[in-house]
Amino acid sequence: MQEEENVKPGYTADSIKVLEGLEAVRKRPAMYIGDIGERGLHHLVQEVVDNSIDEALAGFCTNIHVILHSDGSCSVKDDGRGIPTGPHPVKKISALEVVMCTLHAGGKFDKNTYKVSGGLHGVGVSCVNALSSKLIVTVERDGKISQQEYAAGDPVSSVQVIGESTKTGTHIRFWPDATIFKTLEYRFLKVSDRLRELAFLNPNLTIHIEDERDGEKEVFAFRGGLVDFVRYIDANATPIMKPFMMSATHTSEQGVETQVEVCLQYNTSYSETVLSYVNNINTVEGGTHVSGFRSALTRTLNAYATANNMMKKDTSLSGDDFREGLTSVISVKVAEPQFEGQTKTKLGNGEIDGIVRSIVNEELAKCLDQNPGAAKHIIEKAVQAAEARAAARKAKDLIRRKNALEGMSLPGKLADCSLRTPEDTEIYLVEGDSAGGSAKQGRDRRFQAILPLKGKILNVHKARLTKVLENEEVRTIFTAIGAGFGDDFDASKARYGKIILMADADVDGSHIRTLLLTLFFKHMSELINAGKLYIAQPPLYKIKKGKMEQYAYNEEEREEIVARIRKEKADRKASKAKPGEEPAEDPLDTVEEGASADGILISRFKGLGEMNPDQLWATTMNPETRTLLQVSIENAAEATHIFETLMGENVEPRRQFIERNAQYVKNLDV
Ligand code: 0RA
Fold this sequence. Notes:
Layout: H1 11-27, H2 29-33, H3 38-57, E1 63-68, E2 74-78, H4 95-101, H5 125-130, E3 132-141, E4 144-151, E5 154-155, E6 160-164, E7 169-176, H6 188-201, E8 206-211, E9 217-220, H7 226-233, E10 244-251, E11 257-266, E12 273-278, E13 281-282, H8 288-307, E14 326-333, E15 339-340, E16 346-347, H9 350-370, H10 372-405, E17 426-431, H11 433-442, E18 448-453, H12 465-470, H13 472-481, E19 498-502, H14 507-523, H15 525-529, E20 533-536, E21 541-545, E22 548-552, H16 555-576, E23 601-604, H17 613-621, E24 628-630, H18 636-647, H19 651-660
Bound molecules: 3-[3-(1H-pyrrolo[2,3-b]pyridin-5-yl)phenyl]propanoic acid.
């Protein structure tokens, strides 16, 4: 602990500053962890796990145990070196207390041991402490077991030695503060998806997760690293080769190391999946590591094809030709990553482009030479892609020309809104002509546009871009949104601020929703990342009692409403039961046909078409009263795996997936 940049001398003055620091986190939590909803809550686990991962990256930790406890707390235990517990040279108090109670003190005492560290989260475990009503840290180190407890970031006691141990490690258990978070409920899948991803990216680690609430458990250990990752993503694809694994470490003249790992595989599909990571963070917006990989891929494959006389003379294959059916994972460990872009998930370091490019050029050439069979399949596939692309260009030109001819004409069946400012407007993609009709009548035409879709749209997962663009329904969607397609797609050109998918709550509806989600995920993911894609939530039930009509969006709400009506009725009875007086007619007394004994009629909405325009407006379209689900890609790796399972070629894994996840995808039928 030589560095003092985080801990300035002067005990009294500094301890005041420390207090201020954590107070600031409690005052403005969103500034540190993004938000105070479900995302922020999960960010806390992420932050503690990241610290353990840092220990693993430094080479000292191989096991991490995460437990979601029944009392709402969460614990993370690792077998790293343990947070130092001795007295801090300057502050005199235990270093453990400094780490836990000082903003950004984290693991930065000893910079040299941390070659890399997760850059995006990295707010420090002290933030987790500040936002927990209670936190207990237990450290095994130097033969002792030490422990300290905190409340809202303040120590409740000094560091206590509670026993002896020959092991080392850190165990942090925290209780998220109910006065800060809007929800305290952890979601097993959300935590485990991220832990699985971390286990793929760090092959020496074994990560355990256990949910004490229902006993669910998982152990993630992928000694094959990125090779296992690529196989997982492509679990339901049909590969045309074994994965190519490339890895090397670059050392600069100043001795700064950059570790590059890339794994790729081609399958029989036409779509591309590239997942990229910098220091274990998913770089959704790509960056210099991805561009370096792309240029190396194009260059090396072209060079190989030319050298082996696999192409016509004087032709060359483009980058796009090598993207069809490609699944790849790029993981780099960078000493000082610069994150850019809208969501700070784009790597900006210029030097990484060249580093990745030269490593992939060299390593890929080796893979190709050692696997001539696979190389042949790749080149053949790219040649086919080039031919298809030439055809696609014609189809695209056709649409462009058509658009130009008809003066950028919009689809005939689009009922557009009158406002022209995208940020104020929304478009509903509505399943079926009859629901489309109701929506057109029920909408507020100033800012709501309606595009009715008829029947099932193309499964874009199985089709090549040419086919996608030939599909009338899909083309209509692209045209109405107006942000272009393929390489020319630009989310900022979208004609509407919100794109809302509205489909029935039945089997057909969920099929259409899945097809539409696939289309957006594969071809308009920028719109999802910009938070512009939504799913409308029509009610499931209508509860009728006399002249009163109410809507429920789930079973729980339905029961609440029924209970309330019964109570109101009972109250009314009690208040008006004056002796000798004939009771006035209670609107709640009229008995409906098909109603239960107490006159409450519950009907289940089967489709949007069952609602008249006013009902549709009141329940599903009026911004004042509706609920919209915002679509987000929380975990790109998992999303890809799931889409592959749901939309891919093989039926059996899809059946297995639906069976296993029946509780989560109740309405999903594909
Ligand atoms: C500060 C310094 C050192 C390690 C750590 C913190 C550390 C923090 C966490 C949080 C969770 N698990 C952790 N493991 C370690 C370096 C210690 C040394 O030099 O021995």
